[in-house]
């Protein structure tokens, strides 16, 4: 790890991310160091630089690299490294919005759909970010994200995803929302409509008041109520959304436990500059083990060193 990295802690005090702007940043020096590392297949140098720069700084390095060498940095990485490390470094080189689009596209690609990854992204991103993601998706794939989601899903679950994609805060009374959600649970099967409408169009403070009061009123957790009254994908969707409203970091930490590499890297890369410290804290509380230690038990080599650099330290 670059010693100068720690100096950035002062200039970014209070950040919830683990990857911070590298001080005294010189993209030309980084680009030349990376060029030499690619020729020697020097994994240590590649990992050291690419995991200690923010996404904006990595984009500047890639642009400078192309100016100096007339070659694409991502293509160079593909030739120099392979396997899981190659995939991780290529993900780090993607612009932030493009990376979220890539994750959504991968979740819908091929046979079957990764519904929970779609939910994870749509539930944890802001309204403004989702609008930017939709625009970037259309720009890259010449397709409408809303139509793609419709084509991959159906029924109430599809309605939930589309409501999340287009979520916009609407003012409402807490008591009225409590009554609507409670009434939707009174039949043999739950009505998804009120849950979709309310949970995708209120701010988190309002929704937490509603959910807390609903639990007191019914004498069970919201998760228990949803488990009993709904089935299939909509049950999973509503449960994930409620978890993200109540504690998004706990939900992401839960996703990281015994997970597959694409999901692990997706969360770590996506949240590295925003709130990965919070996810780390939730992971420690959930498992009793720090994420940093857990990574060392599951991965090895250059791939492990890159993951540890993004995670940054023990808790």
Automatic annotation (TrEMBL):
Organism superkingdom: Eukaryota
A single cellular component GO annotation: nucleus
UniProt entry keywords in alphabetical sequence: Annexin, Repeat
GO MF entries: calcium ion binding; calcium-dependent phospholipid binding; phosphatidylserine binding
Gene3D superfamilies linked to this entry: Annexin
Family classification: Belongs to the annexin family.
Record PANTHER family: ANNEXIN
Entry protein name: Annexin
